[in-house]
């Protein structure tokens, strides 16, 4: 696994087109925010801590998502050995970031992921996991629930036909549903014995071919998991494979669709359909 320190920043040419039914009523920033050039507002780089987060990324992946921002599964997989990963984890902790995100590729392909994430979490830094749910079982979920602050499962449709086509592998929808069911069960058992729930939820990358299933997802899929904590609907942006001209013309939302996605009326409609625990 290659651990790369990366600030989470907004591209200078892209607005923010995302809706979190838990924390937002819809947010459109256009034109995007720009940093002040006033020297008095600048902080000495030698003392500044990371304002956002680091992202741990490697390119091995069993899926072939059409919109993959990192082009995972198409690039050579790069991975540090265990000792190198632990040294990198210690180096990241020394910078005191707010959080570290483990994303892909497929983080679960990294044999020592839980040990590395636990090293960071044990130092008081929040660690978050993003997964498509392809490789996820109950024992792993039980261990992960003790380490990760947030676990996000990527689901890009309310049906297997739509999700699997976008994710590039048959069966990926059922795997994602199974992962959510496991997390839901583990969370319920933790609460029953007086422990904190697992903070898990869904990230839905919105493109033209799954836009029509948003309401169905909120109405029929999300309620299947009583302990689901959040639901984020984010329009795919022109990054990685989604920046290809043919994909952009076929799948990226146009401005009218983007405005509708984050309009107050549409957000309230989705809120009314989604479980209250995901939108309050």
Question: What does this entry look like structurally?
Answer:
With 280 residues, this protein is of the alpha/beta class. The protein is 35% helix and 15% strand. It contains eleven helices and nine strands. The radius of gyration is 19 Å and the shape is globular.
Briefly, what is this?
With 280 residues, the chain is α/β, with parallel strands linked by helices. The chain has helices at residues 82-94, 113-122, 138-144, 160-167, 172-192, 208-211, 214-221, 245-251, 255-261, 264-273, 276-279; strands at residues 2-4, 17-20, 27-28, 53-57, 99-102, 126-131, 150-154, 200-206, 230-235.
Strand content: 15-25%
| Spatial ordering of strands, largest sheet | 1-4-5-6-7-8-9-2-3
Counting H and I runs of at least 4 residues, what is the number of helices? Answer: 11
First and last CA, distance: 36 Å
Q: Compute the average pLDDT.
A: 79
Helix proportion of residues, in percent? 25-40%
Shape: globular
| Number of E strands | 9
* Major sheet: 9 strands, mixed
Low-confidence segments:
1-48
- How much is the radius of gyration in Å? 19 Å
Structural class: alpha/beta
Query: Oligomeric status of the shown chains?
Result: single chain
**What are the secondary-structure elements, in order, as H or E?**
EEEEHEHEHEHHEHHEHHHH
